[in-house]
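Kindly review this record before class:
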Amino acid sequence: MHAWPASEVPALPGKGRDLRIHDTATGGRVTLAPGPVARIYVCGITPYDATHMGHAATYNAFDLVQRVWLDTKRQVHYVQNVTDVDDPLLERAIRDGIDWVGLAERETALFREDMTALRMLPPQHYIGAVEAIPGIVPLVERLRDSGAAYELEGDIYFSVDADPHFGQVSNYTTELMRHLSAERGGDPDRPGKKNPLDPMLWMAAREGEPSWDGASLGPGRPGWHIECVAIALDHLGMGFDVQGGGSDLIFPHHEMGASHAQTLTGEFPMAKAYVHAGMVALDGEKMSKSRGNLVFVSKLRRDGVDPAAIRLALLSHRYRDDWEWTDQVLQDAMERLGRWRAAVSRPDGPSADALVEELREALSDDLDTPTALAAVDRWAALQAAEGGTDDSAPGLVSRAVDALLGVAL
C-alpha cells in the first residue's frame, strides 16, 4: 500500500532541541534522545468516515513529533497501518450495501488526499492489515505454541497473564479495563475465556465474512492488536521511540499490543514512550463514528476552506487536551492565517532569529503549540505596527512556520 506525497520541509539555521513529551505509561514527561534515526509507529485509520477532525488532530500531533526530530538533524522512520479489514468496516459496508474492499479503498484514497492537503509528512511504510496477514499468522502460531495463547471454539485468544508487564501502559484498574474492553471491540463476557480481558488474536472464518489461509490456525482473519504488532516489529523492531495514537487507543489497543510484542520477544518495553492525542468534540459530544457527529476535512476543503487554516485550528489546542470544534475555532484560525500571510508578504521586518528559538523551545516542551502560535502572533503584530529593517526576516518566519508547524504561508 502506498502513502501520500511528502511536502518539502525547509531547513532552518541552527539545530532544534530534544523532545520532552508526556508518556502515558509513566504519567510524566520523558526526554526522547533517539540515535541518528528516530522510530515512530502511529496507528492508522479503519477506512470508513475518513477523514474527520479527530483523525486530523491525531495525525497532526505526530506530524509535529517528526518535525521536531527533523529539526534536530535526525532522520525519521515512521510507520503507519491501515486496518482495512475489521468488524466496523464490514458492518458499514453491509449497512451501505457496498463491497467492503471498495469502501476501504475509497476511504483510504480520501484520507491520502486530506493528509496531502494538510501537509502531513507521510510514513515510510504504510501497511494494510490485509497485506500484513502473511506476517501475522506465524506470530499467532508462536504465541499459541508457547502457551501464551489458547483456542476457544476455533478462535485463538492471547492470555494477558502471559505478560508480567500487562497493565503498565494504561495503569487502569481491572474494572475499567473490563468496561473499555466491552465498549471497544472486546468480548469480556464470552464463556470459556481464561481471563475476561483476553483479546482475540485470530478469528476463525465466519459465514459471509472474508477469511484468509491461517496455516495451522485454520482459515480466518487477524485480531486488531496483533496486526499493529506484526507491522511494528517487522519495520521498527522492539524499543522504538514513540507509539502514538488517540487517547481512545490506550486501552485495549496499545495495552494489548505491548503485551503481545513483549511476550513474543521477551523484551520490555515495546516503545520508549506511549503518546496519545486528546479527543475532539462537537456540540458537547466526543466526535465519533458511532454518534455520527463528524466534521470532515474533505467537506471543509470542498467548501473552500484553506487547509492551512484547518491546520492552524488544530494547532491552537495542545495535542493531548480534549477540545471542541466550533465555527469560532475555524474563524479564528482563518483570521490568524490572514495576519501571518500579510506579515510575511512585506519585503522586510523585525528580526526573526529569536522567534525561531521560541518556536523550537515551545514545540520541544511537549508540543506546546498554543505558545508557539502566540510567538508568531507577536512577531506579526510587531510587523504590522512598526515593521523592521531585516530583509531576511519574512522569509525566515515563513520557512520556520512551514518546517516546524507544517503551515505554508
